[in-house]
Amino acid sequence: MTNTSIAIMSFEKEFRNIFSNLPIQASLSSLQIAFQSFEKTQQVEVHSRLKNLYNQYSINIKKTLISKVEQEDAFLEIFVTTWKHFTEKMELIRRSFQYLDPAFQTLGKESIWRLGLCEFRKQVLCSHEINKKNLLGILESIKKQREGEVRNGAILRETLQIYIKLALYDPIEKSLESTTSKYYEVKSDVYVRNLNVYEYLKYVKERIKYERDYISAYLHPRTKDSLLKHVELKLIKRHAKLIWEKIESTFFDIMRNPCEKRGQALTLLYLYLVKIDGVELLQLFIDPIIEKRIELIYEQFASMPLELSSRLNEVKNEIKEMFEEGCDDDLCTAIKEMWQQRVTKYISKNKKINETIAKLIHEFMTSTVNVKIKNLEELLEIVLALLSYMDDKEIFRTLYMTDLVTRLCFEKTSNFELERRVATRLLNAMEPEFSNNLDVMLNDIITSSQINESYNNNYKSNPPLLYANVLTQDSWPKYVTNSTLTVKLAPDLEQAKKAFERVYKADPENKNKKLKWQHELDRCIVEMTFEPKNILISLSLFPTLVLLLFNDLKSGCYLSYEEIKRQTELETAELNRALQSLIFGKIPLLLKDPPYDDIDSTNKFYINESLGTVIDTITDGTENNIITLEDLEVTKRVQDALDIKISQQLAEDRAIQLDSAIMRIIKPEKQIPKALVIQRILQIPRFEWAKEKDVLLRISKLEIDRFIETDKRNRNLLLYKP
């Protein structure tokens, strides 16, 4: 026997001594020198002897484990202990013969550690009997932990880590998912029918937390998410329809009562909605509650602005009282934010509240008789508090700007400097553009006053007197500056208009500016003679132009509709409104024939000469003996502009509610006939305003956004797209 053969046998003997827990007998340095003198084939032989030894030892481990009668935790503990002993031997070999791994790597062979793992995997973990015992132990240990028994979590964790290290975890993962799914399927069937909905949702919350914090701690990170999905599927999504029905039947009763259960109900509902990807549906529950509360508060305190502000603030902060003190986790925070966002939403879109705020300012600035707030700072404090509860102030802005235009353009403001002061204080509550536009508007009025003073100094002896506001087009509301109407002025009015333009253009700064007249906003003071008295009437331009046509008409004579239209060149709609103001207004200055039908092109029109007999009654209580007729043209334009904005907000909010309701119906079903969706929506009381076309429109929008789709084989079937 050669020295080389003896040296190879010495390596094998020392390997066996290590596995037999015997001390190493040979000189390690001598073995290293011998190995370094080996040929490559001889070094491969050393690797082969070590592999055979691993194989034999692994086979012995397999036989020992198969013979064990212990079950579950006891067997897992034996298995883990055996694994530790095996890895300790591998580590001792690697540490004692450190020079072997670099040589094996050069030869393209497995390392000492890798070689041992492969043999253990092949002989032990790939054994059907051992695998079966391990799997049973893992699953039973997890099941008993779920049932509340105290188990050895360290052994379970180490067992799973062995399977992960040896790349045999996938079958374990599939079995875990399958048994978890079956376990919670059985549990959910029992609890969902025997518990009330909030007790059940509390159970769901506890089980999800347990799976996430305890069971998932033993598993591979990737298993955590998949396992939780199975739990949520069986506990929540499988019973979504039944849970939803129970929630609907109890939620509003709980929220109406001031008890500690309200916070719990909101928390559990929010958690449930998170798991079915439907958090947006929470607003379907809280919206009716909030909306009703805000409406009742307004009805009670509309005439008490300070109290109104205080009560609205209570509604906004009521959510904090529903939760235990110190509840500041992500779940509570999310619910509080949603509640407060919906409160500000409903305050913002409540037209009556916005009108109240605007009215407070308007009454103060016009010194109305019924003003109850005399102190400006008190007024602004209330206004700013109310505005702070709004996330969208566009309705208020529209109302405020409408009133401001009236005050500025028609000289109704009590104090010009106070207007600027109020506007400055509003800046913090409004968008930046509000400031820019307001500054320009106020400056326009000052500039207009200077221009009119110059005009009157030059033409004060030439009637009619004229006062014109020169407004910067882009800074005023569109209904003020964006008119395209044309009209034929009376000769003396046309003369005054041209004279004003000459004065305006005489200023070098205005040389290149163009005046665009907005005649539908013009106001006129007209003197009418009724024997034995004259009266002054304030009305808008278009009715004035119509009245002037009757100036030289003999008593009892009439003008036809077509003649009036020809001489004024008013558009049909504007002419009809002007005639309505004169015939059906507060004072019927004109009469028509026939008297009761709507205005049309066949009508004849007369001066109402009978007014002379009641003229004293008409003028009683008027300011400066001037009778003001309702300005139907301007009033309609202002209201149209406001109604359009409010209608847009209402349509947007209704669309959100319809979308949520449609998704709530389709998600649990996965596929459902379109006609059935429409039928269910129209049966919901809060959608009493909806028509079939409204639902179809939202279904089409959801299809465009790819939340749902129409079945290609059956166009009447809707499919949910997860």
Q: Can you give a write-up of this model?
A:
The chain has 722 residues and is mainly alpha-helical. Helices cover 67% and strands 5% of the residues. It has 30 helices and nine strands. The protein has helices at 3-19, 28-37, 40-67, 72-96, 100-107, 112-125, 128-146, 153-165, 169-194, 197-218, 221-235, 240-256, 261-275, 282-301, 305-321, 330-349, 351-366, 376-388, 394-409, 416-426, 432-459, 478-481, 491-506, 541-548, 561-568, 572-584, 615-619, 632-669, 674-682, 692-704, and strands spanning 523-530, 533-540, 559-560, 590-593, 604-607, 626-628, 671-673, 708-710, 717-720. It has a three-stranded mixed β-sheet. A hairpin with a 6-residue loop joins strand 8 and strand 9. Helix 17 packs parallel to helix 19 (394-409) and helix 28 packs across helix 30. The mean pLDDT is 80.
Q: How many beta strands in the DSSP annotation?
A: 9
What is the molecular shape? Answer: elongated
Order of strands in the sheet with most strands: 1-2-6
Radius of gyration: 44 Å
Oligomer status: single chain
Which stretches are low in confidence, meaning pLDDT under 50 for 5 or more residues running? Answer: none
Strand content: 5-15%
Structural class: mainly alpha
- Fraction of residues in helices? 55-70%
Largest sheet: 3 strands, mixed
Distance between the termini: 74 Å
Mean pLDDT across the residues is 80
Domain Cullin family profile: 352-583
GO molecular function: ubiquitin protein ligase binding
Family: Belongs to the cullin family.
Protein name: Cullin-domain-containing protein
